[in-house]
Write the structure tokens for this entry.
Amino acid sequence: MKTRIIFIAVFLLSIYALSAQNEKQEVLIIGTMHTVPKIVKNSYKPMLNFAKKYNPEAIYVESPMANDSTSWNYLKSGWSKNYQKFYHLSDSLQTAFKFSKEKFTILSNKELKSLTKVELDYLITASVYKRDNGNYGLYSYLKENGVKGAKKPTRHEDGDLTYKLALSNNLKVRNMDDQQTNGLYHKAWSKCSMEGRKNGNNTMNSKLYKKNYNSSILPAVFRRLGKHTNKRKSLNQLHTMASFSYVIEDTDGCKEGRKYWNERNMRMAKNIASQVTKSGKKRNIVFVGASHVIGLEKELKEKYPNLKVVLMTEY
């Protein structure tokens, strides 16, 4: 009898182990609104509570990959003043900073809550040196606000969400953004807008924007804006506007803009999938501007069927 019980127990454990091995790695995508008005400064809280319950093993953020020289070549004089400043500081540290791989490894493996001010200063400088924008932001946020995070909302949803979640789970963040053609995208946007003055495209875009705005008023009042933004209907509207899929007449500028938008989503998906696959982590969370969610989902599902991709409100 005892032998039979042991046999059954071993059999069940082997089935469980095999099931765990065959379980797909999961990518959960949450759309953010980046910087928000004061009236909805707490919109991140339900999303943060949801993310904490999900308990991710890895957090991916919309910051450029450190080794993406093409993106940084654009960003050093591109649209973002913060990225410009970060790049030039990083560039100046290449000869001025004595980077120690051993010291960096030891400190980056310490629990975030146990890091001293001196150690944080080193990690902040080292992150700039390594051109790791995501963790530069995380360590800087930790130094300024402590391990519990900012007491008041910063109104920057990416920080309020990602950094507080990272501190709660003792995780560093992983960069996944791609800005290689973002300059061309902005030029195409302007071109599409110029072309759309007389053919009805701009009118259609304005109607779609107004519809999206009006539908978010009640959720904003009742502190459910984050959940509303992550509903598939809202995400589809945002994707339609960002990818110029609303147009009545498909002009050259709109086609170019759509091409660059889709290519950016494709490269971001590749950045995510390659890191997730290599890491072996089962629960991975991606924070990205809400307009990108539908495009990322499409790319990940089509190109990387080995991954299970799910949206926040459909989890």
